[in-house]
Amino acid sequence: MATTINLACESDCKEIHQTFGNFSHLTQALATKSQIQRTQIREKYMEIYGEDLINCLRMRTTQLAKSEGNELGESSSAAAGSALALWMLDPVERDAVVAREALDQKSEITNFRALVEMFVGRKSSHVVLIKQVYQVRFGRILVALVASHKAHHADLSQHIAKCDARRLYQTGEGRSGAIDEAVVLELLSKRSIPQLNLTFSTYKHIYGHDYSKSLKNENYGEFEDALDVVVKCIYNPPKYYAQTLYGSIKGMTKDKGGLARVILSRAEVDMDEIQRVYRKKYGVGMIEAICESIPAGDYRDFLDKHIHFPSIAGTHRERPEHVRSH
């Protein structure tokens, strides 16, 4: 069995090497591979050719972008190459790269959305590994979210959720002036992601609207904007990702890497549910929307394959089995 797998992997590597300039073929060869298969191919490629396949993909992508005289996002082949390079990374490496790009000082703004998705939608063990791979100075909310992964408990507490919801109200829309940031940061750092989800659900039950609605105030600033992203990503992930994809597909956002990032990170997790939410909310399937907005080519083919990539059972988020009332 092991010999068969090794031979298949070696065959894949030789085929990839022989047709390296053809991104259409690379998409066909790599887009449907599982994480384990991708790792095996990367290791075998290094063994055979002495080169890192990901570095080769990046170099070829840069060459294409220069030869075509376009920005990366304007070239289908270059965009496909960039996405393939991300896809070939293991999830921890990929998140580290995304974090680096999100915090790139050359950019006009920090891509906070990408960072929030990472810290809300990953397992605690995964987040710890990201931190080890890429030590970097995060903003206050992100520091709190990292700390929240130390707070995972077996049970959820309805009592704590009610108390926290009331605290959020009393230090937010229940008073005049700005939100008490210290209270928000305390809750984000001390509660697990599932417990925070229950708190936001309880808030809506008590006060009749989502907590994120209370953040829509013209006098609020960057902290509230960042908090709004956190709340939406925690409270209803499929809806959040559907909205993010819609904005990226329609070109309504500065988050230029959002489309590939979300599709790649959710392809093996909950893309089926995201697609259902997308169709229900916008009245069109995600594939149709992408075909209408993105020119035919390697990049569109690559995205199409990952939208149809089989999701694993469950999600990366840890879900407690019980909810305590006290």
TrEMBL record:
<dbReference type="GO" id="GO:0005886">
    <property type="term" value="C:plasma membrane"/>
</dbReference>
<dbReference type="GO" id="GO:0005544">
    <property type="term" value="F:calcium-dependent phospholipid binding"/>
</dbReference>
<dbReference type="GO" id="GO:0001786">
    <property type="term" value="F:phosphatidylserine binding"/>
</dbReference>
<dbReference type="GO" id="GO:0009409">
    <property type="term" value="P:response to cold"/>
</dbReference>
<dbReference type="Pfam" id="PF00191">
    <property type="entry name" value="Annexin"/>
</dbReference>
<dbReference type="GO" id="GO:0009408">
    <property type="term" value="P:response to heat"/>
</dbReference>
<keyword id="KW-0111">Calcium/phospholipid-binding</keyword>
<dbReference type="GO" id="GO:0009414">
    <property type="term" value="P:response to water deprivation"/>
</dbReference>
<protein>
    <recommendedName>
        <fullName>Annexin</fullName>
    </recommendedName>
</protein>
<keyword id="KW-0041">Annexin</keyword>
<dbReference type="InterPro" id="IPR037104">
    <property type="entry name" value="Annexin_sf"/>
</dbReference>
<dbReference type="InterPro" id="IPR018502">
    <property type="entry name" value="Annexin_repeat"/>
</dbReference>
<dbReference type="GO" id="GO:0009651">
    <property type="term" value="P:response to salt stress"/>
</dbReference>
<dbReference type="GO" id="GO:0005737">
    <property type="term" value="C:cytoplasm"/>
</dbReference>
<keyword id="KW-0106">Calcium</keyword>
<dbReference type="GO" id="GO:0005509">
    <property type="term" value="F:calcium ion binding"/>
</dbReference>
<keyword id="KW-0677">Repeat</keyword>
